[in-house]
Amino acid sequence: MKITNNTFPALPERIAGLGELAENLWWSWNPTGRMLFKLLNRRRWKESIHNPDKMLREMPAELLLAASRDTKFLAYYDMVLAKFRQYMADKACSLLRADCPRDAPVIAYFSAEYGLHHSLPFYAGGLGFLAGDYLKECSDLNIPLVAVGFMYPEGYVSQRLSAEGWQESIQFTLDREAAAISRVLDDVGKPLVVQVPIIEPPIYVTVWHVSVGRVPLYLLDTDIEENALWNRGISARLYTGDIELRLRQEIILGIGGAEVLQALGIEHAVVHLNEGHAAFSLLERIRDRILLGLSFEEALQKVKETTVFTTHTPVPAGHDIFPFQLIEKYFSQFWDSLGLDRETFMQLGAHSNDQPGFNMTAFALRLSGYRNGVSRKHGEVANQMWQNLFSNRLAAEDPIQAITNGIHVPTWIEPKMELLFNKYLPQGWLERHDDPSLWEKIDAIPAEELWETHVWLKIKLFDVIRELARKRWSIDKVNPAMVIAGGAMLDPSVLTLGFARRFATYKRADLIFQDIERLKSLLKDRWKPLQIIFAGKAHPDDQPGKMILQKIVTIAKDPEFAGRVVFVEDYGEQFAQYLVHGVDVWLNNPIPPLEASGTSGMKASLNGVPNLSILDGWWLEGFSGDNGWAFGDEPIEGDRSLADAKAIYQIIEEKIIPLYYDTSENGIPLGWVKVMKSAIKQTGSHFTARRMVKEYALKFYAKAMVSAGQAP
User: Fold this and answer.
1) pLDDT value at residue 711
2) What backbone phi and psi angles, to 5 degrees, belong to 629?
3) Starting from the edge strand earliest in sequence, which strands make up the sheet with 611-614, in order?
4) At 178, phi and psi to the nearest 5?
5) Nearest residue to 558 via CA among 166, 167, 165
6) What is the pLDDT of residues 398-423, one digit of tens each?
7) What is residue 532's three-state secondary structure?
8) Cα separations (Å) of 663 from 4, 447, 491, 629, 673?
9) Rounded-to-integer distance, Cα 120 and Cα 111, Å
10) Does residue 483 form part of some domain?
11) Cis omega (within 30 of 0) on the bond before 121?
12) Is 503 part of a structural domain of the chain?
């Protein structure tokens, strides 16, 4: 097999390594890599929306030739390229084995979405960003891992708001030639095509490759001429509402993904399922072992001993349940190959009589030997939710353990903030950021410098928002009220809350509007006002979520709110980078215990933005009393919205506003800066992808490798 990396014929030989760098996402989390392309041409870097693949493809040859003769640029280029090549050549893997050769990954990681960079829109939200951060950290730690997912040429949802504030979905198609993605070719140089087992008439996938540092990510694509027209769009977009199409996607991702790894010659010993979307891959693993002569029970045990499953949500709607008759339509010929009858096969995915059907989470839990939720609280909730699957367990055992999510620090630390940390933290802190003692040095940062950095990031955020609003006005000719709603009147001197989530009803984006008059008084206070920035998308089929979104946009357009409520369209990875760095407070108020973990608040906190959050998910572990504000710890029967809203108002009125506006003679809110420092220390010392990946490696991977006969 061969990877066809994009070529850049206009690149002079002296700087040909720019193409090598552009084709590996390593640059996206390494500031020196990003700076190299910025130094190449700042305007072109900005016009490409920070996409070096697109930038190199569109740059005039004369500009590239000039760069190849610029001695200062060449010195920096040589340094960055040497750093990148040294990184890629390093095979040390102290966590799991002595060395990690590129062609022998041990762990296969399956996920339905990956949030890696906005130029590769294969994500819908938190699950995807978690998977993207996971791959980056596995690369940094040199975990021997290969990843499998879907190529979604139409992505998830590109959001536009109508004049009435209703979410509309805009179609777009990914330009694969202007992104760090490459075709996989077969032995004769043609695009690799693999038939997906069990589906008749047959469905085929072609394969794309993304280099995430040292980790290869393979993406499946059904949009090829070998497929019938009605099958070519199976992998077109994420999370379709068509239940049968969704099942076909999951068969292709799981069983097709396993078949693709086999076609690529990638022999993996351990499988890690990031949610249940790819759980059918376990059936293919069982069938492979049966073909080697094992019984179903023996094969099942072998697969369980080498399978890790991470469940991410306690929300019932977040678990795929397929009607038994639909499962029978696709698997009636398959269970014979496992030596099973219909009833025994269906029982693998049965969960409860209240929700009849083949439950993919129940299926994955039954077939996995290592299972976890994504925070301590979620671990407790998951064990309660799925207790009927483990009725024979000993009381002292937890069949579903807990590994709290974390964020990839090099990706989410803002470069300006990183420069400040470089100045006061020990040298090389980023390379060893999982050392808790390093973060105590945050206290050495002068309050003036930390506050000035935050204000700079806040102004940068507001500049971005105002430019987006201006474009909507000048290019799209939208109603002026939509320009106001989009943030044209934001004031950087005003205390600013940020709320950005998927607009599912349980996340309660409109909770702060419970008492409109009380909120208005806060927004319109003459001396100590408040303003709120909202962003996020509702699922295309989620009408209640769209109605909440429309409610907020309608409020944002209303002059009664003085332009201090804002909704920013089309929330994605790039704008998230500005938002989590630039607001003053990160607001989070889902219905507990439905927040499994949450990572956006971690990203904000790492950059000195404290959280105002309900005590659920990661905040139950992260709140220390001095790093933000918490509410909702008391149990409430029935609708708790009014009580939680009152708690938010009270905290804002009595704690947040007085602290924010209490400034020294030179305008520094010294008490607020102390909270910022505590937020940074708490997140940086614990809620990181490095800690998370190490826990998976030591708790699960190492044991599974032993079971697979691959001793660490």
Assistant:
1) 60
2) -135, 145
3) 565-568, 530-535, 495-500, 585-588, 611-614, 628-631
4) -120, 40
5) 165
6) 899 999 999 999 999 999 999 999 99
7) strand
8) 58, 11, 18, 20, 10
9) 15
10) yes
11) no
12) yes
